[in-house]
Amino acid sequence: MTTPAPDPFETLFERGVTDGLPVVPPTRERVEAMVAGSGREADELIALVPPNFGRATVEKIAINAVMAGCRPDYLPVVIAGVEAMSEDAFDLHGVSATTNFHSPLFIVNGPAAGAAPSAPGGAPTRPSAGPCGSSSPTWGAPLPGP
Fold it and tell me: Mind giving me the DSSP string for 62-118?
């Protein structure tokens, strides 16, 4: 009898690289497509992310966005969120190092907010908000410090 191949979804849960929500395995093809959707180079440094000041490159952000279920056309919005939340004024170090319960809020406005189709009343018809928001807490965890 042959041993079945490990389930890639369960493997990601066991490794602790998910926030508990389902994840999409970040295959090379998916990550490359995500990076291409950004229109930037994979090794471009976007931010040094507190609290360990890990290097958030386009590729590292793309990996997390793939895992969260983002589409390539969502990546520019996720990158903008990484840039904004890594600004000193946001105090991500304080937010991520506190012992109090917290949940950063990532609001998208302007043309990017209208990119995802919505039903009357603003209800999303395509799940863009969930993956964009879900990718933001995960991008800091796998970024070790310098």
Answer: HHHHHHHT--GGGHHHHHHHHHHHTSGGG-HHHHHH-SS---------SGGGGSS-B
Question: What's 26's DSSP letter?
Answer: -
From the list 15, 16, 12, the residue with the least C-alpha distance to 69 is: 12
Residue in the structure block whose two tokens are 């490359």: 32
Across the chain, which has 146 residues, the per-10-residue mean pLDDT values are 74 75 85 95 93 89 87 88 87 77 73 57 48 53 53
CA distance 74 to 99: 31
| Residue 40 DSSP code | S
Q: Which three-class secondary structure state does DSSP give residue 130?
A: helix
The answer to whether the bond into 51 is cis (omega within 30° of 0) is yes
Q: pTM here?
A: 0.72
- Label residue 46 exposed, middle or buried (CB < 10 Å: 0-12, 13-18, 19+): buried
Euclidean distance between the first and final Cα of the chain, in Å?
Answer: 46
- Domain ranges across the chain: 8-102+124-139
